[in-house]
Amino acid sequence: MSRLAQTAGLTDVQREILSTVRDFVDKEIIPVATQLEHRDEYPTQIVEGLTELGLFGLMIPEEYGGLGESLLTYALCVEEIARGWMSVSGIINTHFIVAYMLKQHGTQEQKDTFLPRMALGEVRGAFSMSEPALGSDVSAITSKGVREEGGEYVLNGQKMWLTNGGTSTLVAVLCRSDEGHPEGTAPHKSMTTFLVEKEAGFGEVRPGLTIPGKIDKMGYKGVDTTELIMDGLRIPANRVLGGTTGRGFYQMMDGVEVGRVNVAARGCGVAQRAFELGVSYAQQRHTFGKPIAQHQAIQFKLAEMATKVEAAHAMMVNAARKKDSGERNDLEAGMAKYLASEYCKEVVEDAFRIHGGYGFSKEYEIERLYREAPMLLIGEGTAEIQKMIIGRRLLEEYRFQG
Ligand SMILES: Cc1cc2nc3c(=O)[nH]c(=O)nc-3n(C[C@H](O)[C@H](O)[C@H](O)COP(=O)(O)OP(=O)(O)OC[C@H]3O[C@@H](n4cnc5c(N)ncnc54)[C@H](O)[C@@H]3O)c2cc1C
């Protein structure tokens, strides 16, 4: 299936990277994804393959050993990977966000220390804002970093929903840090991102830092999602991202903004796979003497699904290109994330309906997609939060002049 979701104006290098990734997805991911997902098994072999392809360093600058590719290349690769199995794109995504934050905001020493090893996939990133009592309302964070005499910080608090919490070895953790910011400072100006190095695994992975275990989820399996508990966790001053406290909220929001393009790309990939499954099944299943694809009601469904796949892809590409051009893209990223995740859910639902009763069977891939699509409605900001961002930006752009 190649007619849909084409991207005009790609370079030869981009086309070559995408064709390699697509080949890898078709041969190494799709054939095993559903089995691994049902066993909630980490896809070690797939991750090793992606490491060899250089995917962990795709956007890391060449001077640090990465491929120095654009957000568009990255997003198109993510779209391909999510077409195979969304969880695999989740393994790369938090790594990519942390590498991006380091590239944009890290001190030279932080870049030199982490980026070369991140490009090789030796250091693997996760990022942590959410807490048990908050996700959308980041300004309400209660985890705290307190500076001690001598410069070290002591971190306390509980974090929730860390994608790659167990497998990562570097976590960007957002905490409140009141030091230097007097009482009454706006919440978003009193937050700091700490770069927390740790062992991979579960339990006490570093003195003062515990990763309790995997959260059992309805979908998005294989990739580990965890809590993170800080109890007197000591962090040296040179592990404050960018070296200055009070910048954490902006750094994280910058990371999440590129993450939104990534979630949009995942929605595109999952929707494409659902369309492929639906259009194929519709030509094989017969009712009332003909393939169901020949019933107009099913053809209309296919038409709607394909139109949504095309529209989501176009918006995702537009948001990535805007960021690559150096322009602010929060409006485009919010719109792309919102539309692609909603359309993905609808396309998956239609493909599920086309499968009739068989869609309910774990033997059919669409069953897995049906449980995966909802995660995209939540991650990197819910639909309501996207609409708030879009609405605010529109009012800035279209300020009433009268
Ligand atoms: C599988 C998974 C992986 C995740 N990975 C990560 C990760 O790696 N790192 C990380 O930091 N977080 C992660 N998250 C957390 C995710 O970002 C949050 O779940 C998400 O931001 C929503 O927050 P919440 O769950 O606290 O919902 P809430 O914020 O409690 O929202 C509940 C409902 O209220 C709505 N709502 C909230 N505020 C408003 C408002 N002002 N107006 C209208 N409606 C509103 C929301 O849209 C939602 O429908 C992950 C979550 C999941 C499920």
How would a textbook summarize the main sheet?
5 strands, antiparallel
- Write down how many β-strands occur, each being a DSSP E stretch of 2 or more residues: 10
The helix/strand series, from N terminus to C terminus, equals HHHHHEEEEEEEEHEEHHHH
| Count of alpha and pi helical runs | 10
Label the structural class.
alpha+beta
Tell me, rounded to a whole number, the average pLDDT.
Answer: 96
C-alpha end-to-end distance: 51 Å
**Small molecules bound:** flavin-adenine dinucleotide
Work out the strand percent.
Answer: 5-15%
Outline: globular
Adjacency order of strands in the biggest sheet: 2-3-8-7-6
Features:
three-stranded mixed β-sheet; binds flavin-adenine dinucleotide; 10 strands; 402 residues; alpha+beta
Give a written overview of the molecule:
This protein has 402 residues and is an alpha+beta fold. The chain is built from 10 helices and 10 strands. A 5-stranded antiparallel beta sheet has the order 2-3-8-7-6, with helices on one face. It has a 3-stranded mixed beta sheet with strand order 1-4-5. The protein has a two-stranded antiparallel sheet with strand order 9-10. Helix 3 crosses helix 6 and helix 4 (86-105) packs antiparallel against helix 6 (248-284). The model has no long low-confidence stretch (mean pLDDT 96). The structure holds flavin-adenine dinucleotide. Flavin-adenine dinucleotide is lined by residues 94, 127-130, 134-137, 161-163, 217, 220, 225, 375, 378-379, 381-382, 384-385.
